[in-house]
Amino acid sequence: MYQVVAVPDTHERLLNLLEEHGAQYRLIDHRPEGRTVIASELRGHSLREAAKCIVLRVTAGKRASRYVLAVVPGNRRVDVEAVKSLFGATSVGFAQREIAERLAGSVSGSVLPFSLHPELALVVDPEVLDVPMLYFNAARLDRSIGLRAEDYARIARPRVAPIALREAPALAA
Hints:
Elements: H1 10-20, E1 25-29, H2 36-43, E2 51-60, E3 64-73, H3 80-86, E4 91-94, H4 97-104, E5 120-124, E6 133-140, E7 143-148, H5 149-156, E8 159-160
Parallel strand pairs: 3-5, 5-8
Antiparallel strand pairs: 1-7, 2-3, 2-4, 6-7
């Protein structure tokens, strides 16, 4: 007789991963929201403490493509030119939504800053790790996690590289 074991969804996989590694985190339930600015307001933290996660298609040559999960602070945007340079690519663009959601295991707006798929490379801007707590949707639009940044770095073991656009200094009036 075979025992049928259900494959846990991405949210459950994340919680299991955090528990297995003894991470310090807290769950935050809120109304469904995937936009970083609004989700950060609902969770009650600064944009700088949010992990914005974008799945990119990185192409080298005519046919060699790979997918990269780029994680930047919530108050920044991904610098595609930096990602292009980092991977020695000829082009970088946003992955098609269906592909991004399949690789991330969750809908757009709830992508985790963890790669749980072997075809998804993880690269994180160093500013993401410069806060005590990191906040992100937990593979659900109605639940987020506050996770110690040091626990995130220890568990995710990301490639760390400057991939966020830096804001231009404000001009004096």
